[in-house]
Amino acid sequence: xxxxxxxxxxxxxxxxxxxxxxxxxxxxxxxxxxxxxxxxxxxxxxxxxxxxxxxxxxxxxxxxxxxxxxxxxxxxxxxxxxxxxxxxxxxxxxxxxxxxxxxxxxxxxxxxxxxxxxxxxxxxxxxxxxxxxxxxxxxxxxxxxxxxxxxxxxxxxxxxxxxxxxxxxxxxxxxxxxxxxxx
Length: 183
Description:
Number of domains: 1
Radius of gyration: 17 Å
Helix content: over 70%
Order of helices and strands: HHHHHHHH
Distance between the termini: 34 Å
Number of strands: 0
Strand content: under 5%
Largest sheet: none
């Protein structure tokens, strides 16, 4: 995720005409309506992630190697750091760069939301969490919701905060399964 972000910033620096899309990566506003959509999305995504694990029982061992061996006291900090960094990077790539580009190309917010959601789902298909066709489908729906939140809030803060909560749930699920598998 870091490579596309760095490439994007370099390209914007080299081509001043592209700075128009760069300016759309503003903070935005979290009003009552946006906050309610954020809460609903957090609730739905939490249920979807837990349901995906509980009903489908995917092989989560492929993710265990990504969790470093650390003292118990550091696990919450690691979870928070992962959640913030992953959410910021994915939001800037998908709801920032890709959605801005699609919005400029297609001149309609509906197509830009769907375009970035398809890219987000495909990105999670192979190695993302959740993965596979069902995981990619769930991630597509989540991407639509995050795109809607981005449009409604007119900025990046609301989708980033919403995404952080999903990543905290994801990290909690993985830590729970790691602990269960080492018993």
